[in-house]
Amino acid sequence: MTETMLDKRMTVDDIVDQISDGMTIGIGGWATRRKPMALIRAIARSSLKDLTVMAGYGGMDIGMLAATGKIRKLVFAFASLDHYPLEPHFRNARQAGSFEVLELDEGMYHWGLRAGAMKLPFLPTRVGIGTDIINQSGFDFKFVKSPYEDGEELVAMPALVPDIALIHAHRSDERGNILTLSVDPIFDELLVRAAKKSYATVEKIVPTADLDMKKNSRYNLVERAMIAGVAEAPLGAHPTSAAPDYQLDLKHIKTYVESAASPEAWAEYKAKYIDVSEADYQAAIGGADAVKQLPVPIY
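Now predict its structure.
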């Protein structure tokens, strides 16, 4: 293999170019933590349409793609901004019936990712039994019976397999070795292992030696062979957090929440923060120094 073949560096727009209309994209992170927002903003600016979005633990990623009309179907467990319990643009889109949904319990979504990661068609679970989750229209949940003496009937949670997974990590080298330095890696590992292809934005691409993989192996969620491309995107998770590099930006999230109040407010937000380059976005939010001074949030 040549050195060129080992170089997986791309731009954010290069990654978005890998997505086609109608694809299923899986989005990593959790609500206000480590969402790949530079990629989400780029998708929002693009001409992409009719996407099936898998964002089980969703937040602004769902809301921004909903508000820009990119979603045909949403597979999710929740859409929250933590301090604002219900993502406001998601709420507006649901109330308007803007797209199909497959709503799952958090445990079912986890199990679906795990089945996908293990290349199994489904995994059995008790989650959902006794609730209307398994009776919702648009999806016919199946059941399996334990082959052992207990004979218990369980929900067969199908594998969730996105065409493309998008995650945000902290560091990588040009070969796709990534480090996720947060104390909460969440389910990004399962998402990448379940997906047909995965791409990561990272705060910084560094020489392989600087990753110190022997010391930091516990922060390396997946093998580099599972990462098809990496793009350096400083502040690429903003306004969600990428701790320890920076915390979530509650002031900006408040501005985003207020943009859901009217079409005019959304148009103003979109013009200032989405329909611009990432350099202009960073200038609009006060620059890297301001973001890195954000305080640790209180939950």
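The chain has a mean pLDDT of 96.
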